[in-house]
Design brief:
Layout lengths: L35 H23 L6 H8 L3 H7 L3 H26 L3 H18 L1 H9 L6 H15 L14 H21 L10 H13 L1 H10 L43
């Protein structure tokens, strides 16, 4: 069985969105009519949920495999059939959860009429998802640092995927290099999220949308024009959950300047987020 496989409905959920002992996913003792791969997938989901809650509550260093199994209602032998150890399970939860986040952001970006709106709406999706599952936010943004070199590699890969949303930004004023500026913006957004989550303000993350949207646009448009764009553009309705579950966001052809003839917020292709 592919260890990264999840039932389609579960692919939309962040790890930690449910408890590991969710009764709806209980597997009755004795002969089961469920195929072995379905049983294994269900146990894996429960373990990832149990891991997220355990790590968020106890910290990565203090969480044990026994704690995770207890939270999931799954035995240690089953855990070791699915994962090589705590780090392997943690990275699996992180990769699956951040993949859900990136897909939801990409769907919001693709539904927007232009780049400026796309950046704002993808940020909205990110902030709402993390605020909705605070245990995952703590595990993925704070506790990932305790994993060591493998955790640092995961952070670097995640930030690279975030950079894809800035793949076709307008040339910044003053001859500033685009790559360095995008790195600064992406890093600044990530550290802002880290500070808020670490301070216990995860539920307040959506309140950061105006500041982070301006922060992302201003280096490329100038602060005045960025503010004007953000005030002028309408809010895009949230994409249906099913649209975010596809492996790759829909492709959209560039449509040239906006209605005012200003090329600074042209319609661009959705980012290739590596999914």
């Amino acid at each position: 069985m592919n260890s990264d496989a999840f039932p389609a409905a579960e692919a939309l959920l962040l790890p930690g969105a449910r408890t590991g002992r969710d009764p709806a996913r209980s597997i009755k003792r004795g002969p089961s009519r469920l195929p072995p791969d379905v049983v294994a997938a269900t146990q894996r989901e429960r373990l990832l949920d149990g891991l997220v809650h355990t790590v968020a509550q106890q910290g990565y260093q203090h969480a044990t495999v026994s704690d995770i199994c207890r939270a999931a209602g799954v035995t240690r032998p089953v855990f070791y059939e699915l994962f090589s150890g705590k780090e392997d399970a943690f990275l699996a939860a992180h990769r699956h959860g951040t993949g859900v986040v990136i897909r939801r952001m990409a769907a919001a970006f693709a539904a927007a009429p232009d780049w400026c709106t796309g950046i704002r709406e993808s940020l909205r999706a990110l902030l709402n998802l993390l605020a909705g599952v605070p245990a995952f936010a703590t595990m993925a943004v704070i506790e990932i640092e305790a994993v060591g070199p493998a955790g640092r590699r995961e952070i670097a890969q995640l930030l690279t995927r975030f950079r894809a949303f800035f793949a076709e930004v307008p040339e910044p004023p003053g001859g500033v290099g685009v790559e360095a500026l995008v790195d600064a913006v992406v890093g600044g957004v990530y550290r802002t999220l880290h500070r808020a989550i670490d301070a216990g303000r995860t539920d307040q993350l959506p309140d950061l949308l105006p500041a982070l949207s301006l922060f992302c646009l201003a280096p490329f448009l100038g602060p005045d024009e960025a503010h004007r764009r953000l005030v002028a553009v309408p809010t895009v309705p949230a994409a249906p959950a099913t649209s975010a579950s596809s492996a790759a966001p829909p492709q959209v052809t560039a449509a040239g300047p906006d209605a005012d003839g200003d090329p600074s917020c042209t319609r661009i292709d959705p980012p290739d987020t590596g999914q």
